[in-house]
Each structure stands twice: as C-alpha cells, then as structure tokens.
Amino acid sequence: MISFFALDSYIGKSYSKHGPDSVRRLSSRIRGEEIANYLGAKYNPPEREGVCIWVKPRDLSVVKDGDYVDFLDGEFNPKRFISRPKIKIITSSLCQHDFFKNYPNEKFLIPSHHLNIDRIKRTRKEIKVAGYIGVPSPSVYKRFDDIKTELAKIGIDFVTEFLFKVKQDALDFYNKIDIFVYGDWDSNDHPHRIPTKMINAASFGIPSVGFPCMANKELEGYYVKARNMKETVEGVMRLKDEDFYNKMVNKIIPFSEGYHIENVSKLYLLLL
C-alpha cells in the first residue's frame, strides 16, 4: 500500500488580496490526490500505512526516516535533506534530479503526469490560435498583452487562461489553441522548476514555442526555442508552416505518452 500526504489544493487569491481567485496548490492535487485515486492508494489517511509519500511538504518535521518526499518545486530549503539522509527524495524533472545528485539521500525520478488522461487529440483546420495557461502575477498580464500584440501582426490570435479553477477549464483551454507559447524568458531560472505546461500541450498534439530554461532539459528537440519576443514571433511563424507543424505534432504525441498517468503510475509501484 502507498499513502500520499499533501496539503489540499484550494481556490484562493495569489499575489494580491484584491486579485482574482484561481486554483492554488494544484501540484498537490495532481501529485497527491489524482495519482492516489488512479493507483487505488490512500490519500491523507488518518494514520500512516505502507510506503509514505509526502507531496511538497512545508518542512520535514512530519517526515520519518525511510519516507519519501516528493519535492516538486519545494516549499523549504532543500539543504535540509542533508541533515536527514535517510529520507528518500522523489524528483520530477531531469534538471531537478541532477540538482540533488550530490545529496546523500536515495533519489527516484518520477515525472509529473500530464492532464490529458483520456488522450484527447486537438483537431484543427488551420493554425490560427496560440495561447498560454498559468497562475497570474502582476508582471504576467503586461507580458502576454505584448505577445498578443506581436502575434496579431502575423495573423495569430493569442488567448490566455489565468483563472482556471477545475480541470475542465484547462481541458477547454487546450481544445481551442493550436500553438502553446511559454514566454517566460526573463523569469528566475532555477533547477526546481518542472516542464509540465509544454508536456500538457504535447499530449494534445499542440507544439510549443518556449524559453529554454533548466526545467526543459528533457524536452530538448520537442519544442521550438525562443529566448525573447523576436524569437517567439519567429518560432510561431515556423509553426504556421503546415509541414513543419505536422512534423512536430508527429514527434511530440509519442513523446508525451511517457508522461501519461498510466505510465507514470508504474514508477510509483516500483517503490513498493
């Protein structure tokens, strides 16, 4: 038996008490509740049972030696693992796994599964809509307003989804875009980030144009790199070409299969 422990996700405000509501701690729902339900495992049981996995804990005080900590992007200083060498670390990306390579703890790489559990494929008659989904921040709105303006000049509509609350909101978003744009080129780059957004897009057969940050190490060759606005527009222009677009689609769909919950769940079973 596997028991998952995580702080529940909730609908709340981010960055500003006057800002709009959106889903918070989504990673806990995905890596805790959703994977537990798929495996038939325990989620936040009243007592410890079997293999215990703590998803993104705020500290290690509740974690016993021999337990697993699913670090994700972390909510505490990872150096605390050094003083707890018997805790086992679950990493969720190649760059994160590399980051922990000098730590004394046992490490297990289990990537996040994408949201497209039903293996829905985006059907399109033409390439005309690009988009981005993510958590809102004060700087994000201006960034994506600028992207919208620049892409309009080459005949591409640009849509965003910052206020999603349930899974269907995200599924509806991917169903209406043809290109995913990850315009995060001046954000803080660090090894704790995970490449979930572009993998989600790939699972629908939607190619991405994105910043080559550390987290995207495992996506090398599966997206169009863009380090600034100019390269973002150029990348979208490349994907307007039907031949190149279809080549990318045929490449990313089989790649994304490795991140389907059916395959990711098998990695958890190896912990038993």
Task: Spell out the blueprint of helices and strands.
Blueprint: E1 2-5, E2 10-13, E3 21-24, H1 26-39, E4 42-43, E5 51-55, E6 68-70, E7 88-91, H2 94-99, E8 107-109, E9 129-133, H3 140-152, E10 157-161, H4 167-175, E11 179-182, H5 196-203, E12 208-210, E13 224-225, H6 229-239, H7 242-256, H8 261-269
Parallel strand pairs: 1-4, 1-5, 5-6, 6-7, 7-8, 9-10, 9-11, 11-12, 12-13
Antiparallel strand pairs: 2-3
Helix pairs in contact: 5-7
* Shape designation: globular
> What structural class is derived from the secondary structure elements?
alpha/beta
Oligomer: single chain
Element order: H for helix, E for strand:
EEEHEEEEHEEHEHEHEEHHH
Instruction: Please indicate the count of domains.
Output: 2
What is CATH's topology name of the largest domain? Answer: Rossmann fold
Report the biggest beta sheet as strand number plus sense, adding barrel if it closes: 6 strands, parallel
The CATH homologous superfamily of the largest domain is termed Glycogen Phosphorylase B
What is the residue-mean pLDDT, rounded to a whole number? 90
**How many distinct helices?**
8
Rg from alpha-carbon coordinates: 19 Å
Summarize this entry quickly.
The protein is α/β, with parallel strands linked by helices. The chain is 31% helix and 18% strand. The strands form 3 sheets. A 6-stranded parallel beta sheet has the order 4-1-5-6-7-8. It has a 5-stranded parallel beta sheet with strand order 10-9-11-12-13, sandwiched between helices.
